[in-house]
UniProtKB/TrEMBL annotation:
GO terms for molecular function: xanthine transmembrane transporter activity. The chain crosses the membrane at residues 21-39, 45-64, 71-88, 94-115, 127-150, 156-173, 180-209, 229-248, 313-334, 340-362, 374-398, 404-423. This is Uracil-xanthine permease. It is found in: Membrane. Belongs to the nucleobase:cation symporter-2 (NCS2) (TC 2.A.40) family.
């Protein structure tokens, strides 16, 4: 970030002219599209509301980060486990409670933003080292794996085609093909499912071309008419710990964007502003029945490929997403996607989530020769996965007449954070370019969604 700007980099897209700016904006929209719409398909949330609040959330993020950071906010996969715990089959009456839990998780972004502002990043991140966040991310993917198998088993041919396309595009693809493997996997396997007669388009024919993207009954505000306090508390306690993984992901993405565009966004506008923008965007989306937002690595890949680093291009993509959200017929096409397509794609995605957790541990050189690190990681993994696949599926208890159910992920995350804090011999890490406190301390890395493969960086 301290080197001179690349001579072919474009920081002011107005020099290209409006038509080219619009084309670059469309490219960014399609880069985020495949992953963003897959989250509502997997969870039962509204596709239209998802697109609307991806666009609005991105614009809010840009406003709060002084319009300096070229980041797009799309649907976060990290919260899928939370939606599945509260509404395992996408039950419409239960999803608002899950959204309430996600909105409360968004509040943690605001807390971390304030802590970064007040105390600095190094002191705060000591409570969330890789030995804690790595196993949490691993658990998220493994807990979700059973639903991917169940969906894929409805037609293994279509599912395998989806997996094969993703692998081929990601390993042997070039240019845009390499950074949109999920979208390609969805499109080609969807077309095969259509050819095999696996898709029912009756809903598409009935859907209007224009309509409102948000329905009141799908929002958190609809809970006021028939509020279940126990279910609400369960949702909040179950889902809030997931924000630990997404906040780390956010920091990794901002670091990757900074490296890509040769600007230190960690220093200016600062992580406290970007976290605030991401958190408020997540709260806003959740309250209106859309998935949590997160900064998207796919769009960082587009930045690296095009060398167009002007945040205004990202804002054009956000406007396009908002426009698409007002087309119910488009949303109906997405909702008609068969389970086998979803299963094939999610098999890769859920596995990648767990693999990212492993990479987090490896690249940060977590020392598993230390018994305390083994104990922290072991308890997170065993509690998270063991409880999730137990007969009860959760730890259930009553407080003051209210029944509370803690998911395995919530129990494992809380146990790991507390255990890491109280056990002696913690590993120390530097953060965000700050010098380590000792010469032998490793620099904390964030090998999450925002980091780019070598081939994309060199494109």
């Amino acid at each position: 970030m301290g080197a001179e700007d690349s001579p072919d980099a474009i920081y002011d897209a107005t020099t290209l002219g409006k038509p080219k700016m619009i084309v670059f904006g469309l490219q960014h929209m399609f880069a985020m599209f495949g992953a963003t719409i897959l989250v509502p398909v997997l969870t039962g949330l509204s596709v239209s509301a998802t697109l609307l609040f991806a666009g609005l959330g991105t614009l809010l993020f840009h406003f709060l980060s002084k319009g300096k950071v070229p980041a797009f906010l799309g649907s976060s996969f990290a919260f899928i486990a939370g939606y599945a715990a509260i509404a395992p089959n996408g039950e419409a009456e239960l999803l608002p409670y899950a959204c309430l839990g996600v909105a409360c998780a968004g509040l943690l972004y605001l807390v971390l933003s304030a802590l970064f502002r007040g105390f600095g990043a190094l002191r705060v991140m000591k409570f969330f080292p890789p030995v804690v966040t790595g196993p949490i991310v691993i658990s998220i993917g493994l807990i979700l794996s059973s639903s991917a198998i169940a969906n894929a088993s409805t037609n293994w041919l279509v599912a395998v085609v989806a997996i094969a396309v993703i692998i081929v595009a990601n390993i042997w693809g070039r240019g845009m093909v390499k950074i949109i493997p999920i979208l390609l996997g969805v499109l080609l396997s969807y077309l095969l499912a259509v050819a095999l007669g696996e898709v029912d388009f009756s809903g598409v024919a009935a859907a209007p071309w224009v309509g409102l993207p948000v329905a009141f009954e799908n929002t958190v505000f609809a809970l006021s008419s028939n509020f279940d306090a126990g279910l609400a508390i369960t949702a909040v306690i179950t889902i809030m710990p997931l924000a630990l993984a997404t906040m780390i992901e956010h920091i990794g993405d901002i670091s990757a964007i900074s490296s890509t565009v040769n600007r230190n966004f960690i220093a200016e506008p600062g992580l406290h502003r970007t976290l605030l923008g991401d958190g408020l965007a997540t709260i806003l989306a959740s309250l209106f029945g859309a998935p949590a937002n997160t900064t998207y690595g796919e769009n960082t890949g587009v930045l690296a490929l095009t060398k167009v680093f002007d945040p205004r291009v990202i804002r054009i993509a956000a406007v396009f997403a908002i426009c698409f959200s007002f087309c119910p017929k488009f949303a109906a096409v997405i909702e008609a996607m068969p389970a086998c397509v979803i299963g094939g794609v999610s098999l890769v995605l859920y596995g990648m989530i767990s693999a990212v957790g492993v990479r987090n541990l490896v690249e940060n050189k977590v020392d598993f020769m230390k018994s305390r690190n083994v104990l922290v990681a072991a308890l997170i993994l065993v509690l998270s996965i063991g409880i999730a696949y137990s007969t009860a599926g959760a730890i259930v208890f009553a407080v003051g007449g209210i029944t509370i159910s803690l998911s395995g992920l919530a129990v494992g995350s809380l146990a790991g954070i507390v255990l890491n804090a109280v056990l002696p011999g913690k590993d120390e890490y530097s953060f965000g370019g700050e010098a380590p406190e000792r010469a032998d301390e490793p620099e904390m890395r964030f090998p999450l969604e925002g980091e780019l493969p070598k081939e994309v960086k060199e494109a």
